[in-house]
Write a structure and sequence with these properties.
Layout: H1 3-6, E1 12-17, E2 21-27, E3 37-42, E4 47-51, E5 61-62, H2 82-95, E6 100-103, E7 106-110, H3 121-127, H4 139-153, E8 157-163, H5 169-184, H6 192-207, E9 208-209, E10 217-218, E11 221-228, E12 234-242, H7 260-267, H8 286-289, H9 301-314, H10 319-336, E13 340-344, E14 347-350, H11 355-364, H12 368-376, E15 377-381, E16 386-390, H13 393-423, E17 431-437, H14 449-479, H15 493-500, H16 505-514, H17 520-531, E18 538-539, E19 547-551, E20 556-560, H18 564-569, H19 574-581, H20 586-591, E21 611-614, H21 623-626, H22 633-649, E22 652-659, H23 672-682, H24 684-693, E23 697-700, H25 701-707, H26 721-732, E24 739-741, E25 745-748, H27 752-911, H28 913-920, H29 923-1103, H30 1126-1136, H31 1147-1226, H32 1239-1280, H33 1290-1293, H34 1298-1312, H35 1319-1334, H36 1338-1341, H37 1346-1401, H38 1405-1430, H39 1432-1473, H40 1477-1482, E26 1512-1513, H41 1519-1528, H42 1543-1557, H43 1561-1581, H44 1586-1605, H45 1618-1622, H46 1631-1666, H47 1696-1712, H48 1717-1740, H49 1748-1768, H50 1775-1778, H51 1780-1790, H52 1796-1805, H53 1811-1820, H54 1833-1842, ...
Parallel strand pairs: 7-22, 8-17, 8-22
Antiparallel strand pairs: 1-2, 1-5, 2-3, 3-4, 6-7, 9-10, 11-12, 11-17, 13-14, 15-16, 16-21, 18-19, 19-20, 23-25, 24-25, 26-27
Helix pairs in contact: 4-5, 5-6, 6-7, 6-9, 6-13, 7-9, 10-11, 10-13, 14-15, 14-22, 14-24, 16-17, 25-26, 29-31, 29-32, 29-37, 29-39, 29-46, 31-32, 31-34, 32-35, 32-37, 37-38, 38-39, 41-43, 42-43, 42-44, 43-46, 44-46, 46-47, 46-48, 47-48, 48-51, 49-51, 52-54, 53-54
Length: 1890
């Protein structure tokens, strides 16, 4: 079409921009052919004139319609060009927060620099099984497509992930591998998928580093092949690496780091196991501090090392190998710190004992001397001789760095090799998926050999990519039979030839490396000479002779030749390698065991320096090997790259292009310049160009017809839609080259869809204008007539009102004029008088002021004259003084000058010789005299020194003697002091004991008086209580009325409380039930897996070769936990012959399964026991508490009496001891009375020891009494409030009787008297030893009055203790008094209870219960009244407690009554069974006819005593036939359709009744076990058939109901007829088997849900989302290459009617099988939950479904589901509530989304949706038509702010695997057993009716 049709006014275009690359503008006027410019207006309102290129006349790119902006696939855009691609990516990334976008076959991934919640397991499950275009773009969709094509096409796949450093390649590859590991699972129990994922942290640690562009940049390329078996489960993996950046080991630029592993080791240097590495901070090592940024924000290197070590362990690299790796890495760091110094210009050396070199040698186990030698020297070989050459410092340093790089490269390869060994497949690989994580195109300011290799690899990958895209386009055209011509696309084969062809860059580089004196400069000249004139892609920079430029597919890159040869050679000193090979460190030797010669291709290294010495002659045996040189790095890389390309060409590739949005790592920030560079480099724009060159837009005929039906007239619509589309297109688009008709699709060239959209929008706009015109005309005319009528009426009333107002105005004006006249006169007169008075006052004040000013001026003049006089005199005096000082100063200066002159003269004279002689005359004589004095003094000093030495020696000896004597005296003094202190303490203790004795006597008397008073008070209290009893009877009637009112209020409150508690209990019950049922499902899964393993083992036993195999002694089974029949035992015996054959399999898995089964069974049994014991524990606890309370009261009184008796006896003993002490101290006055061994001395010490001991005992007793009194108070307080029995005497209540109490008290005394509790006793024995040793005489001991001091101390201590004891005694008395009063009341209560009990025992049972209840109610009422009088708040709480207890009492009485009746029935049976128990235990547990495939727990089956009729009899050998005909071979669709619902269950129960009737417990057990196992077997065999599962779920529930209905329990017999009650089981109680069958029903229910899921899930998304139930509401948008099938209902596509029909089929099947109505409701609720969850999850992951029209479709579909519920009468089952999240999501798509009020409405409406779901729907909302508007980012942020405080699940998707817990309410049958007839079709003729 002509440009004038597209470039019209208001058309939007893209123009180039320096900052934003492309800027949007709008045409101001139409474009006409021949115009030289376009008149544009920018989005900011700026007008612009865009000049067209006069040569090309190319117009700017047109913008796509708004409805196409933000598309999932870039090929869906009508205009395919660079600005459209860039804008679409920006809108999705910035506005919608979507990082993935399709571009044909390429997935474009933009790094968000933020963790997004889009990689969880539920997202993986959502993408699993979906087609590529079904869901929004995601890395999981690409992984799923690769996995699906591998399984479908039987062809290996590859995922190629490329991009710049920091674009997210490693993360994308990691998530792809995680997807495969999650979806496919593992083929064995070795957890291969975990090992595959565990390789990631290892490779990141040793191969990733921080760069300026990325904190975790991969510095190597890798290709991981994930292997799969024939069932497409992961069996292993293999990794290939490419071009590790070794130079980073020794050098890092600013703001960069070395490899992560070095920093992880430095951060963990403090760990004990790393001490031997001698590491420190990263800044301490040269190789880790060059980047000056050793820390990455938010990364803990210590934790990362722990993760790395765990990954090593998981991959089988043990701790010793790990420590070896760390040793090598630490050695590299130490080697980098080895300092090499200059010896001269041609040699260097290493200082002796270099610490870092020593550490290096110790870590790698080499000789220090050898390593230091070869770090500074090199061996040179000639044809005849070998020389050792010294190296300059620079060359030695380079050699050291080369060795470090070489060691690290070897270590890297070793780790990769062992990772591959750990991931190797144990079975044959069927197929694989390769994930290529390789560097993208790179260009820096300085580009070297690494960038050259990287860009070379990208050239190869780009060529493969272009060929694959072209091939797909060609296949699509041929498939649709579209005539096509060759599409011109960029072929980069010339660039590849320039690099790798013969005489190419790599060939010339290898050739130069072989030259003896090859250099980078000579190689550059060869490049210039060879390619400069012959290849247009090769250029030479103008300003450099050491660089070259290559025109790559993405951009021109300039490479610097410096270092190319050295990096290509990658040489290492061979002697250094030999030293390392001779290491004692095994791991290092293993690294270099396959080392080739590390020499240069020429065998020598260029450089300067002379020969130092002749070493040895060359070894002739190595001449041959010296000719074999290793391949250069370029050659190796070219070969490995060719292998990679061969692998990729043999697979189906999938492309992921990672884009780095900005260079500052800012979250969701988009830099258009950087993005365009990467889009050009990664081939995305090339894909767009290839697509745009052909027919990029493709529509099916149905989609085209649905979308552009508005452009057709009625006559154009034909029955054949294909012909209709052809006719319409021929009319709309005249140029037939713009489109092509295929078999199923219409192909459009670029821009045609936009043109059709423009026509469609114009047509809709014209229709809207016509509709608006008519409606606005009608509204305007109606408004005009209404306004005209209103105006006339208003005018009439207004004119009358105005006339009246005018007359009123005239009257008021005249009156106002008169008033104004008089008012103005009054105002003017008043104003004049005020002015006159003011003028007079002002004149008066002014004149007075002037007079005062004149007077003040005269006074000032007089004062000024006086001041002047004084000042002038002062100035004259000052001048005189100043002159006088100047004269004096001048005189001083003159005198000083003269004095200086005189001094100068004197100094000159003093210097003269004569003067010196005069002064020194006589000095010689003085010197002689002084010399003689010095000699004399020296002699005297010598003598004095000798004397001092002798004196000092004698003094030293004497001082030693004195010091020893002094020490002895000090010791004696200290001993004396200690003895004096101890004696005083003894006396104080003695005095204290005396006072305590007197106090005890007084207390005894006080207690006797108190007892007498207490007796009298009790008598008075009894009389008062009688009086109070009379008054209480009078108030009884009034209180009864108030109690009734309060009871009503309490009943209402209690009902509310019970409702709340019931709701909470239901929630808890559902959670517990859900956990239990999940355990059952897990148990079932393990059982099925166990059966599968047994089958595999059985199959393998048939095909395995015979032979002897060792028996595994560790094999065990848990068969003893189950009951087996004899048939299973025979099968087991037969299987023992095959046991040896199965040993080759993985027995560990079997043991794990058995262990897991055991645990599950134990857990299930424990839960069951816990549920059964709840009520019994509660009843026992109440009875035990009552008994303990009564016993505790008696024990407490007994304890108190014992204490009192003990105190009295102790007091007597203390009195006796004191009397003996007085006699011993005062009676004997002899001199030897205090000697050691004397009676007085012994008595004193014994009494002191005993006193201390008794004091300790007293203290313990006082503490015990205090605690007991407090506990008694609390106990009686709780007793008053009638709560449960308190713990007021927990310690005492444990004692059974008084004897135990006495023994406990005696034990307590003995404990207190034990040596551990007698510190005072130890002091006394020590004192005794000291007295015996240091003071043999009592007089010496008491010479300073020490005994008297001891006595006084004892008295003081006794006095203090007596005071404490009195205080405690008083408090004890008060407490005892209160306790006795309470005890008396308790006794009265006990008597009253006994009387009531005696009365009740005389009544009949019914009246007895009523009387007990009446008494309890009365007691509770009295307590309630007491509480009301005390505290209203507590009374309310107590009332609730009382009512609850009343309800509990009623329930307990009913339960007890039922239990009594039940026990009476069984009493006779138990008496009969006593003699039979022994015989029953010796009988076999199984019968030969029992069919057991899965053991069942043995159950004790109690017998009953009654016999009834109506049952079926069968022989024991017919049991297998019964199970086979009734269960295994019964088909629900055949015979079972015409049967009575539940007939198999009735037949089985009637057979069971006969076994119960004949009292055959073995028959009962085998029948139940066979039934359960047979049902499990048929479910395992036909578990995918809904009818079969439904049929056996209904029959299992009916069988369970029969067991309950005929069990004899009254709870299940309420609805039975009298005849049915006669059919109850008579001998056995099958309650435990009911639980087993209930578990089986739960398993069947879960299997039923899985069947429904498998049937419904394929229908839900097409029927609920894709199908247009309301035709014409939603139009189909243009789609791209990754497109879905048509959303219009075609033949074979599921619709909503399909879902409704399937639901009806489910419902009718369940009703036909007789399933319980309540169970059907639960099934329907689960069905609707699946529908709602699957629909909502798909909606949240599909941008094309989030529109206004789709919301209407969803709401209509939900209404149809609700209508189906009404028709079936299931509205009350809770199914509608499960659809609430879907309903709210549909409403969210339809509501207005602009203002804050809209945000508030959304927040209040969407209560069932989480915050993440709401935000996701708003982000995905996409207009289908131009009339809809997008949701603004500000509005979404407002929603997030309002929902910030909401606490909901962080998960985005709903759990489609969730199953509601199922219950089986009891549903008795009214069908009588004797009326059931067995059809002959069941083949059960062997059954006999009894």
């Amino acid at each position: 079409m002509a440009a004038s049709e597209l470039y019209t006014k208001c058309a939007r275009v893209w123009i180039p921009d320096v900052e934003e690359v492309w800027k949007s503008a709008e045409l101001v006027k139409d474009y006409n052919n021949g115009d030289q410019s376009l008149q544009l207006i920018l989005e900011d309102g700026t007008k612009l004139e865009h000049k067209l290129d006069p040569k090309t006349k190319n117009l700017p790119h047109l913008r796509n319609p708004d409805i196409l902006v933000g598309e999932n696939d870039l090929t869906a855009l009508s205009y395919l060009h660079e600005p459209a691609v860039l804008h679409n990516l920006k809108v999705r990334f910035i506005d919608s927060k979507l990082i993935y976008t399709y571009c044909g076959i390429v997935l474009v991934a933009i790094n968000p620099y933020e963790n997004l919640p889009i990689y969880s397991t539920d997202i993986i499950n959502a993408y699993s099984g979906q087609n590529m275009g079904d869901m929004d773009p995601h890395i999981f969709a690409v992984a799923e497509e690769a996995y699906k094509q591998m399984a479908r096409d039987e062809r290996n796949q590859s995922i190629i992930v490329s991009g710049e450093s920091g674009a997210g390649k490693t993360v994308s590859a990691k998530y792809a591998m995680r997807y495969f590991a999650t979806v496919s699972g593992s083929a064995s129990e070795a957890n291969i998928e975990e090992k595959v994922l565990a390789s990631n942290p290892i490779m990141e640690a040793i191969g990733n580093a921080k760069t300026t562009r990325n904190d975790n940049s991969s510095r190597f390329g890798k290709y991981i092949e994930i292997g799969f078996d024939n069932r497409y489960r992961i069996i292993g993996a293999n990794m290939r690496t490419y071009l590790l950046e070794k130079s980073r080991v020794v050098f890092q630029a600013d703001e960069e780091r070395n490899y992560h592993i070095f920093y992880q080791l430095c951060a963990s240097a403090h760990l004990p196991e790393f001490k031997i590495l001698k590491l420190g901070h990263a800044n301490d090592f040269l190789y880790t501090r060059q980047g000056r940024n050793p820390v990455i924000d938010g990364v803990d290197d210590t934790k990362e090392l722990s993760t790395t070590r765990n990954a090593f362990t998981l991959l089988g690299i043990n701790e010793s190998y790990q420590m070896g790796l760390f040793q090598v890495l630490a050695a590299i760091l130490h080697l980098g710190n080895v300092e090499i110094k200059d010896r001269d210009s041609d040699s260097s050396f290493i200082a002796a004992n270099n610490s870092h070199l020593t550490s290096f040698c110790e870590l790698v186990g080499v000789s220090y001397q050898d390593m230091s030698q070869w770090l500074c020297h090199r061996r040179l070989k000639t044809a005849t001789e070998t020389y050792i050459k010294t190296l300059p410092r620079l060359q030695a340093t380079n050699a050291r760095d080369a060795l470090s790089k070489h060691i690290y490269a070897k270590l890297f390869n070793w780790i990769v090799e062992h990772v591959n060994k750990a991931l190797i497949a144990n079975v044959k690989q069927h197929s694989f998926i390769g994930v290529l994580d390789i560097y993208g195109f790179e260009t820096f300011d300085i580009n070297s050999f690494e960038q050259f290799c990287i860009n070379y690899a990208n050239e190869k990958l780009q060529q493969q990519f272009n060929m694959h895209v072209f091939k797909l386009e060609q296949e699509e055209y041929m498939k649709e039979q579209i005539p096509w011509t060759l599409i011109d696309f960029y072929d980069n084969q010339p660039c590849i030839n320039l690099i790798e062809a013969k005489m190419g860059i790599l060939d010339l580089l290898d050739e130069e490396c072989k030259m003896p004196k090859g250099s980078d400069d000579s190689w550059a000249q060869k490049l210039y000479n060879t390619h400069l004139k012959t290849c247009s892609l090769f250029e030479k920079p103008r300003m450099s002779n050491r660089a070259f430029i290559i025109q790559h597919f993405a951009d021109k890159v300039e490479y610097q030749c410096d270092g190319f040869l050295e990096k290509n050679k990658d040489t290492v000193n061979e002697d250094q390698i030999n030293v390392l090979k001779a290491s004692k460190f095994n791991l290092l030797v293993e690294l270099f065991q396959d080392e080739e010669k590390a020499t240069s291709p020429t065998g020598q290294v260029p450089g300067t320096g002379g020969r130092t010495r002749l070493s040895v002659k060359p070894d002739k045996s190595r001449d041959k090997s010296s000719k074999e040189h290793k391949k250069t790095v370029g050659c190796q890389f070219r070969n490995s790259l060719q292998m990679l390309m061969d692998t990729l060409n043999a697979t189906t590739p999938h492309y992921v292009r990672c884009i780095k949005p900005n260079d500052f790592k800012q979250a969701f920030t988009f830099d258009p310049k950087r993005a365009v560079q990467q889009l050009r480099a990664c081939g995305v724009l090339e894909t767009i160009r290839i697509s745009a060159a052909g027919f990029p837009s493709r529509w099916t005929y149905q989609e085209f017809f649905s979308r552009y039906r508005v452009l057709m007239k009625q006559k154009d619509v034909l029955p054949d839609k294909k012909l209709t589309c052809r006719n319409v297109l021929e009319k709309l688009v005249q140029d037939q080259d713009k489109y092509q008709f295929g078999k199923t699709k219409i192909f459009f060239r670029a821009g045609q869809v936009a043109y059709l959209e423009k026509l469609r929008a114009d047509k809709l706009r014209a229709a809207c204008i016509r509709i608006q015109k008519t409606i606005r005309c009608w509204l305007a005319r109606k408004k005009y007539l209404h306004q005209r009528k209103a105006a006339i009426t208003i005018q009439r009333f207004t004119r009358g009102y105005q006339a009246r107002c005018l007359a009123k105005f005239l009257r008021r004006t005249q009156a106002a004029t008169i008033i104004q006249k008089y008012q103005r006169m009054y105002v003017e007169r008043k104003r004049y008088r005020q002015k006159q008075a003011a003028a007079l006052a002002m004149q008066r004040v002014l004149r007075a002021y002037m007079a005062r000013q004149k007077y003040l001026a005269l006074v000032r003049e007089a004062k000024v004259v006086i001041i002047q006089k004084r000042v002038r005199g002062w100035l004259a005096r000052c001048w005189y003084k100043r002159c006088l000082r100047s004269i004096v100063y001048l005189q001083c200066c003159i005198r000083r000058m003269r004095a200086r002159r005189e001094l100068k003269k004197l100094k000159i004279e003093a210097r003269s010789v004569e003067h010196f002689k005069k002064l020194n005359k006589g000095m010689e004589n003085k010197i002689m005299q002084l010399q003689r004095k010095i000699d004399e003094q020296n002699k005297e000093s010598r003598l004095v020194n000798e004397r001092l030495v002798s004196i000092e020696s004698s003094y030293t000896a004497e001082s030693e003697k004195m010091r020893s004597e002094l020490n002895r005296l000090h010791g004696v003094e200290e001993d004396a002091k200690n003895k004096a202190n101890q004696l005083s303490t003894l006396l104080e203790e003695l005095e204290r004991l005396k006072k305590e004795l007197t106090t005890t006597q007084q207390e005894k008397k006080t207690i006797e008086d108190w007892a007498q008073n207490y007796k009298t008070e009790m008598e008075k209290m009894v009389s008062e209580l009688k009086d109070q009893n009379g008054s209480l009877k009078k108030e009884k009637d009034d209180l009864n009325r108030s109690i009734q009112e309060q009871s009503q209020q309490m009943t209402e409150k209690m009902a509310q409380a019970i409702a709340q508690e019931t709701q909470q209990l239901e929630t808890d019950l559902n959670e517990e039930r859900s956990r239990y049922q999940n355990l059952l499902s897990e148990h079932l899964r393990l059982e099925e897996k166990y059966d599968d393993l047994k089958e595999e083992m059985a199959l393998s036993s048939h095909i395995s070769k015979p032979g002897h195999r060792r028996t595994d002694s560790t094999h065990s089974s848990n068969e003893s936990e189950y009951t087996y029949n004899s048939e299973y035992t025979e099968m087991e015996d037969g299987s023992r012959t095959r046991e040896d054959v199965t040993r080759g399999l993985d027995t560990t898995l079997t043991l794990k399964l058995q262990k897991r089964l055991t645990e599950l069974e134990q857990e299930k049994q424990s839960l069951r026991n816990e549920l059964e014991n709840k009520e019994e524990q509660y009843q026992r606890a109440r009875a035990r508490d009552d008994a303990e309370f009564k016993r505790a009261r008696g024990a407490e009184l007994e304890y108190e009496s014992l204490k009192r008796q003990e105190l009295e006896s102790e007091n007597k003993k203390l009195k006796h001891d004191l009397a003996e002490m007085r006699q011993s101290l005062l009676g004997d006055k002899s001199a030897n009375m205090g000697a050691p061994g004397s009676p007085a001395y012994k008595v004193l010490l014994d009494q002191l020891n005993a006193s201390c001991e008794e004091l300790d005992v007293r203290k313990e007793e006082v503490l015990i009494l205090r605690s007991q009194l407090v506990s008694q108070k609390e106990a009686f307080h709780h007793k008053e409030t009638m709560t449960e029995p308190s713990v007021f005497a927990q310690d005492v209540s444990k004692l059974k009787d008084a004897d135990e109490l006495k023994q406990a008290y005696v034990g307590l005394k003995d404990t207190n008297r034990s040596p551990r509790f007698m510190p005072k006793s130890l002091d006394m024995s020590e004192l005794l030893s000291r007295l015996r040793s240091a003071a043999p005489d009592i007089h010496k001991l008491n010479e300073d009055g020490e005994l008297w001091l001891v006595n006084q101390g004892l008295k003081e201590t006794i006095r203090l203790l007596e005071q404490q004891l009195q205080t405690q005694r008083r408090s004890h008395d008060n407490e005892v008094e209160s306790l006795r009063g309470e005890l008396q009341s308790v006794k009265e209560e006990n008597n009253r209870q006994q009387q009531l009990l005696a009365q009740n025992l005389q009544l009949p049972p019914e009246a007895r219960i009523e009387a007990s209840l009446q008494h309890e109610i009365t007691r509770l009422t009295n307590e309630n009244l007491e509480l009301m009088t005390d505290d209203p708040t507590e009374s309310r709480e107590a009332r609730v407690i009382i009512l609850r207890r009343m309800v509990d009492l009623m329930e307990q009485l009913e339960k007890q009554d039922r239990t009594i009746r039940k026990l009476k029935k069984q009493l006779k049976v138990y008496s009969k069974r006593i003699g039979e128990m022994g015989a029953g235990q010796t009988e076999g547990q199984t019968s030969p006819g029992q069919m057991v495939e899965e053991p069942i727990h043995p159950v004790n089956i109690p017998r009953r005593e009654k016999d009834f009729q109506g049952m079926l009899e069968y022989k024991k050998e017919d049991e297998m036939k019964l199970v086979k005909n009734l269960i295994l071979e019964l088909k629900p669709r055949g015979v079972a359709v015409n049967l009575i619902p539940g007939l198999p269950a009735y037949i089985l129960f009637m057979c069971l009744r006969h076994a119960d009737y004949v009292n055959d417990d073995q028959k009962v057990r085998t029948l139940l076990t066979s039934t359960i196992n047979s049902i499990k077997k048929i479910l395992k065999k036909r578990g995918d058939d809904f009818e079969t599962v439904s049929f056996w779920l209904a029959n299992t529930c009916r069988f369970l109901h029969c067991l309950k209905q005929y069990s004899g329990d009254e709870a299940f017999m309420k609805h039975n007829s009298s005849r049915q009650n006669e059919h109850c089981l008579s001998n056995f109680d099958l309650a435990e088997y009911r639980q087993v069958i209930s578990d089986l029903a739960i398993q069947i229910y879960q299997q039923l849900v899985k069947c429904m899921d498998n049937i419904l899930l394929p229908m839900i998304v097409p029927g609920m989302l894709e199908h247009e139930t309301i035709q014409g509401v939603s139009g189909v948008k243009p789609t791209g290459l990754r497109k879905r099938t048509s959303s219009i209902a075609d033949e074979g596509i599921y619709t909503l009617d399909s879902i409704l029909r399937q639901l009806s089929a489910f419902h009718s099947t369940m009703c036909q099988h007789g399933m319980d109505p309540e169970l059907i409701k639960q099934v329907v609720k689960q069905q609707f939950y699946i529908i709602g969850a699957a629909t909502l999850n798909n909606l949240l992951l599909r941008k094309d479904m989030c529109s206004w029209s789709k919301g209407m479709q969803i709401r209509y579909n939900v209404s149809q589901l609700e209508e189906w519920l009404r028709d079936k009468g299931l509205m009350g089952c809770g199914a509608k509530e499960t659809l609430e999240p879907l309903i709210q999501a549909a409403q969210l798509l339809q509501v207005k989304k602009k203002t804050d009020e809209d945000a508030e409405a959304i927040c209040s409406m969407c209560q069932a949706l989480t915050t993440a779901q709401i935000v996701k729907v708003l982000n995905l909302y996409t207009p289908v038509n131009e009339f809809e508007e997008r949701v603004s980012v500000a509005f979404i942020r407002t929603i997030q702010t309002r929902l910030r405080d909401r606490s909901d699940s962080p998960h985005l998707l709903m759990d489609t695997k969730m199953i509601y817990p199922v219950t089986f309410p009891f549903n008795p049958s009214s069908l009588a057993l004797e009326t059931i007839q067995i059809p002959s079709s069941l083949n059960l003729s062997f059954l006999t009716r009894v």
